[in-house]
Amino acid sequence: MPKQIYKWAAWMDGELHTLQRGTDFKKEPDAFAKSARTYARRFGQKAVTRIIGDTVFLQFLKIEEDEK
After folding, report:
1. For 46, phi and psi rounded to 5 degrees?
2. What is the count of structural domains for the chain?
3. Residue 66 pLDDT more than 70?
4. Which residues are CB-contacts of 4 (< 8 A; sequence separation ≥ 6)?
5. How many CB atoms lie within 10 A of CB 58?
6. Mind listing the pLDDT tens digit for each residue in 24-56?
7. What is residue 63's predicted lDDT score, i.e. its pLDDT?
């Protein structure tokens, strides 16, 4: 199994996380947000993101049955 670059499992706790480029991720913020959304879909969740400068606000949410 390949080593994960990011702490996806830790961030999937439902809490709002403030992530900083250079500290928490290395990609452009919009590319990181897209990766988060892709990762969330893989596990049946939704990633809500907001980008301000080099900061990404990220929250993973469980998808309710009526949203599928």
Report:
1. -125, 135
2. 1
3. no
4. none
5. 25
6. 999 999 999 999 999 999 999 999 999 999 999
7. 85
pTM for the whole structure: 0.86
- With contact defined as beta carbons under 8 Å apart, do 58 and 16 qualify? yes
Cβ–Cβ < 8 Å for 29, 51: yes
Segments forming the whole domain that contains residue 20: 16-67
Structure tokens at 15: 């809490």
Rounded to a whole number of angstroms, the CA Rg of the chain reads 12
3-state secondary structure 3-67: CCCCCHHHHCCCCCEEEEECCCECCCHHHHHHHHHHHHHHCCEEEEEEEECCEEEEEEEECCHHH
44: in domain: yes
